[in-house]
Structure prediction request, 69 residues.
Amino acid sequence: MRYQQTYKVEKTLAKDSMYKKLSGVCAGIAKHYELPRLGVRIAAIFALITFPVATGVAYIVAALLMPTR
Prediction:
């Protein structure tokens, strides 16, 4: 009995430089999870209004640590 080997290519989370507005973090998250970019940006703005310090720090850390695609 022969078994076929399948290779799974995993997507990496990276900033999207083509559709970026500030640094490309929201566009990269939207591309990774296959969500609409506008929806991710609206959620980020809502989170920034609701939790400004935590969201601001998380965005800056993500902008610094995420690689550019």
In short: The mean pLDDT is 91. Helices lie at 25-33, 37-50, 52-65. The CA atoms of residues 47 and 55 lie 6 Å apart.
